[in-house]
Amino acid sequence: MSQKEQEIKFISGNVAAAYAARSAKVQVISAYPITPQTTVVEKLSDFVDSGDMPAQYIKVESEHSVMAALVGASIAGTRTFSATAGQGLLYMSEMVHWAAGARLPIVMTIASRGIAPPWNIWADFTDVISQRDAGWLISFASSHQEIYDSVLMAYKICENEEVLLPMFIAYGGFVLSHTSKPVIIEPDDKLEKFLPPLPDEKGWPHIFIDPERPMMHGNLIMPSGFYYEFRMKIHDEMMKSTHIIKQVALEFEKIFGRSYGNGLIQEYKMDDADVVLINIGGLALQAEQAVDELRQEGYKVGSVKLRHFRPFPIDEIINIAKRVDVIGVVDRDTAFGSPTGGAVSSECKSALHNTGIDTIILPIITGIGGREVSVEQQKEEFKILMKLKETGELPKDMIHGTLWDGVLEVK
Amino acid sequence: MWKIIAESKDKRPKLQNYKNWNELPPIPISFPCYGSMGETGDWRVFRPVIDKKKCTKCGFCWMYCPEGVIQKSEDGFFTIDYVYCKGCGICAKECPVKAIEMKRESEFE
Amino acid sequence: MIEKKIIEIAFHGRGGQTAITASKLLAEMAYECGFKDAIAIPIIGAERRGAPIQAFSKISRDAQIRSYCSVTDPDFMLIFDTTLLKIPRVFATIKEGVILIINSNHKIDFNNNLQKSVKIYIVDATGISLKYGLAIEGFPILNIPMLGAFAKISGFYGLDIMEKVIKKKFGSRAEKNMKTARDAFETVKEMI
């Protein structure tokens, strides 16, 4: 069904993701229910069943088949969507790599949850981070509206002929998936202006299923063939996609009036900030409240929302480091055995290497497995950064160079 | 450059035409064409030869040939394209009346 | 300061008493009647019928709500079942100045354990639901009468807004729901 006028709906993050797929005129959906993503599947099947969304819903028996079905549907030249979480994403992993290798612009939302064992269903981005090297663009949404908006932007980025890669949009399970807020659902005329046209009968230019033009894909390439070069191309085009992401964010702002920074990162009160906290997902938005409260107390603090983890915004991180003395990088994920124990902080440190910038980076890990992170706790994190700036003193209870903030202590 | 692959059969670039990785299409694909691996006839060390006197025109050799190099001719007998035949011997093995003999290539030099 | 602009409501119920739906409906009704922003935060675990459930709503007339964390210092508390008051972590959040709305058909004795600034209202939500047959398999649904009582006590939204939202959500079942809301609106009273 078409959406004539803008509508504000009071919905959960999951339902916002489903509405986004409807707004993006997705043609083929395949998804398998898993907590905390289940309500995305429920809403989408509602849409398809009621005729509200003229899409094919392919029912399958597992997440692995979900992505296999979408790979087929996308090769045939359709706009495709799925959603999953945690163990489901891990089970899908083989086909996740396949989608990127075949350069298919599939978009999937992830209601991130902790990885078992021990069993956990609450916010933790380790699931999506584990697919870091698959060749998918990885973005994080920090609000219900951003989930909706990110899906729309994703199709425009992914279907660009210079990109042609799939994209994850991750948000914290329950933190965003099950909380409800007002979300603007955009009308068709505006959407038409923004979204790329749906692929025509000929499908994508690089891969297609057409009896008139038979082709074979998925061939074996010998070590002496171009396998190496094709991998290099994925990296090259992923890195170059930063320009497309920026361009799309600008265009989005122009048409819909909602700003997401430069698309890769979004700064908050950074102009005169001495210290800054970089966050992913919902905690990034909550950190803005912590900034406001601390500024009233006279602290010059700023916050940065990292919207894209892949491609990693190297230039933006360097630019931030040039302006502040101390950066706290907060991971709501674990990267066991990595230099900092968290994926984002390791990469921020790596981005500054050999730049001659001596800004201190304090890696922080927090909120693992849905452990609640309050505004007060974030304010404390800022205060630790201020102390580090003033005295050069690192917090005492760090483990392997990282502050694990919010660890339980029984008194 | 890679975008024309979808357009026309004649305009498709051949693998050898790519000078460097920049020119490659986003993914490796191949189109059906004659002998994509080159003239594989020179891989052959034994040559299958059909004895027309024994042949019953059953078509087993044509059906079993993994490379599709056996064709039916107008008189109903089958001929083998030695430019591409690798000499695998499957036709000789499958022939129900043993009408195909594998002869050493050196006999034909 | 910024915190104060945001009104926080805590819901304590048992699995099946529809406390989570209540938190969502309350936030939606507040947004519907002109509040600038609202969020409903359910605390979801592996709960089953009867397990203690928590949910929160944060509503604000003029500020954007940016926090997703649970409420530790609520302005209002809606207690769906008096047995919940015996749980220490529920009781511990009854702080100074909080307004309690409790589902009960009798006066509750707190043995002077509460601060004087705590205001207590009681409404017999269970009785009202059973009276109008608002139940699933004999288990009364309490969210609508509790929200009806909240409408009266808080004055944030009227029964008209409630009717609008409930009609949108429940369609033909709205009428029965509204009867319980009206009854609760009229019968909720301060416990003295």
TrEMBL record, chain C:
The keyword Transcription does not apply. The keyword Oxidoreductase applies. It comes from marine sediment metagenome. The lineage of its organism: unclassified sequences, metagenomes, ecological metagenomes. GO terms for molecular function: oxidoreductase activity, acting on the aldehyde or oxo group of donors, iron-sulfur protein as acceptor. Residues 15-186 form the Pyruvate/ketoisovalerate oxidoreductase catalytic domain. Keywords: Oxidoreductase. Pfam families: POR. This is Pyruvate/ketoisovalerate oxidoreductase catalytic domain-containing protein.
